[in-house]
């Protein structure tokens, strides 16, 4: 069954991300703009300093619950300890899953509410490439109203070269774009 396979693949996938980081092949996180930092799982041992240096006031986690349970991940308990707001959206890793257009709207609302309070958001999934990358592209589209999905992806890729969006993510972004345009009318 897929949930068991997802849990089985989680640790090797995190090991790959850590290896890429150690080899200098990928940054753990990148600042996208003055309000958003896109990255991989926040690690407890360094997240407090990242939150301070990047003015993080909230964490938006696009992970299944088992991905943020390990003690070395800065999950709900660590965010509470640091006084950070947190929202978790459960989207499966692997298998071509993407947040839906409606979920993207909720994520953008969360980011905007943090920005209105004067803070930045640390947005992540496991590797900060696909699920959270989709949310980051949606945020750029909402922030820059005329930005089409392909342009948002290009702008995002310039800041985070490891971005990996496939057909399901692009389809969700196109639907999000339609919903946002209808909302503005």
How would you describe what is shown here?
- GO terms for molecular function: phosphatidylglycerophosphatase activity; phosphatidylinositol-4,5-bisphosphate 5-phosphatase activity; phosphoprotein phosphatase activity.
- This protein has 185 residues and is an alpha/beta fold.
- The chain has one domain: Protein tyrosine phosphatase superfamily (Protein-Tyrosine Phosphatase, Chain A, Alpha-Beta Complex), CATH 3.90.190.
- 52% of the residues lie in helices and 13% in strands.
- The protein is built from 7 helices and 5 strands, in the order αββαβαβαβααα.
- The protein has a 5-stranded mixed β-sheet with strand order 1-2-5-3-4, with helices on both faces.
- A hairpin with a 2-residue loop joins β1 and β2.
- The termini are far apart.
- The mean pLDDT is 89.
Question: Notable features of this structure?
Answer:
185 residues; alpha/beta; 7 helices; 52% helix
């Amino acid at each position: 069954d897929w949930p068991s396979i997802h849990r089985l693949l989680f640790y090797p996938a995190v090991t790959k991300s850590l290896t890429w980081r150690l080899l200098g092949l990928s940054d753990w996180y990148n600042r996208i703009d003055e309000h958003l930092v896109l990255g991989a799982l926040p690690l407890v041992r360094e997240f407090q300093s990242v939150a301070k240096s990047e003015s993080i006031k909230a964490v938006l986690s696009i992970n299944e619950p088992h991905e943020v349970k390990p003690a070395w991940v800065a999950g709900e308990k660590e965010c509470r300890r640091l006084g950070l707001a947190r929202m978790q959206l459960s989207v499966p890793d692997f298998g071509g899953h993407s947040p839906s257009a409606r979920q993207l709207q909720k994520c953008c609302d969360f980011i905007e509410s943090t920005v209105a309070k004067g803070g930045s958001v640390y947005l992540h999934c496991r590797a900060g490439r696909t699920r959270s990358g989709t949310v980051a592209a949606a945020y750029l589209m909402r922030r820059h109203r005329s930005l089409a999905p392909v342009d948002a992806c290009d702008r995002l890729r310039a800041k985070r070269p490891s971005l990996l969006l496939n057909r399901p993510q692009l389809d969700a972004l196109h639907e999000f774009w339609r919903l946002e345009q209808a909302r503005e009318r």
